Putative 3-methyladenine DNA glycosylase
Amino acid sequence: MQKLPRSFYARDTVMVAKELLGKYLVHRSDDVEQVARIVEVEAYLGEHDLASHSSRGRTGRTEIMFGPPGYAYVYLIYGMHCCMNVVTEPEGHAAAVLLRALEPVAHVSSHTRGPGLLCKAMGIDRKLNGHDLESDNFFLGALPDAEPVSIVAGPRVGVAYAGSWADELLRFYIRDNPFVSGGKTLRKPSGVIQ
């Protein structure tokens, strides 16, 4: 497996989000290598995106989003679930891609349909916030002979507070993949885009 280079992340967030589909998340801990394929993501475009954490400006929580691309932004929601994002675009832009669902490949036995569940299954917690995804123990990679995927776009989940940004088609997933998270937005997708 080839580790994704920093230049992969230092691009347009929507492009990165779509190209993350079919790539692999690898977490090595306690001599165990967990591997899962990324099948669903959401793009958060920066400070102007009212659904993004960075829309409230630079804070202790969002500092990682303003940093260089290719780092993990891991945060706690509802006081109990971790969610993992991948920081994208040039430093200072504060954009990221949320990982929403994974297809287990190796040493992953728990549910991975949903951002909190996938973090729990992959042993991802806030200790990995700010972790360099160029490391050898926690990274995203690709197989050199990977087949292209068919991508479906729809609105993001749980961002009704963001006004018109709630309707933006910034959730992407692999068409017909059984590991995509549930929800009515997926039962009635907006369309296949690739």
